[in-house]
Every structure is written in structure tokens, then in C-alpha cells.
Amino acid sequence: MQISEVANDLIDPVLAKRAGINTMLLGSWDEIAGSSFADCSRPEKITWPRRASEMAGEDGGYQPGVLTIACEGSRALFLSHQQGELIQRINGFFGYPAIRQVRIVQKPVSPPTRRRRAPRPLTGEAARHLEELVEGIEGDALKAALKRLGTAVLGRQGPNRR
Description:
Blueprint: H1 3-18, H2 23-27, H3 29-33, E1 41-47, H4 52-55, E2 65-71, H5 75-81, H6 83-94, E3 99-106, H7 124-133, H8 140-157
Parallel strand pairs: 2-3
Antiparallel strand pairs: 1-2
Helix pairs in contact: 7-8
């Protein structure tokens, strides 16, 4: 069993309960939305209608829900023109008519990227210590990755700590 399967098993019930959405939809969104909208949109929640028959105690039929999609800026207008096709793709993904309507909310989809400075190269005792730590590593790629990690960690600790 892979870690992703375990994570999905733990996360899916929480998402389903809080947002009415599953991780499979989130994970497949790029294919569902297509190349035009994959980078600027994201499904947020599915709102299922309350059934009057369910509240009265009768056995009612299934009713599809409303999918709320976050979309960036002016692309939301273009997405709204494509919502018929998008609903068909989503329902095709689920295998049954799960969604009857799409609600588009304009807001940023991707968090702003923070550029981190590259760590300064280590000097003196810290550089020698790092060199000793990675000395026995045989793979060049692994050795380089461990050096980058060690430089970032030891550089952040300052010259007095090790």
C-alpha cells in the first residue's frame, strides 16, 4: 500500500464531510478542467440540496449538487461560458450526474510564491563538518542533495551553533 492511498483514506472523509468533495476530484482536476483552465481554477466544495422527502421521512430520489469553483480574475468569464462542457466532464468523471450546476467564485487559486534566497556557502569548521558527514555517501546525486540540505540547515543555525 502506498502512502498516497493511506493519506487519501484519511483525508477523503474529512473533505467529504467539510466540503463535500473528494481527493480524486482534486487530483484529477487538471484533466477535467483541461489545459485552458487547469492552472487558474480549483474545485472548492460541492453543495448537495436538502431533500424535502428525506426530511419528511420518505425515501426520496437522488438530486445532483452544485460545485463551487475558484477561478482567477477574468478567466472566470471564459470558464462560465464553458460550464456546460465542464459539468459533462465532471459527471463523466464521477460516472453519474453528480453536478447540476457550477458556481464560479473569483479569487486567487495559487498561493503567491515566495522566493527564498539560496543559502550562503559554509566556511571554516561548518564546511569541514559537513564534508565529514557526507564522506561515505557513494551516489553523486545523493551526496550533492545532502550537501545542499546540510548547507541550508547548518547555515541557518549560525556560526556559534552546530
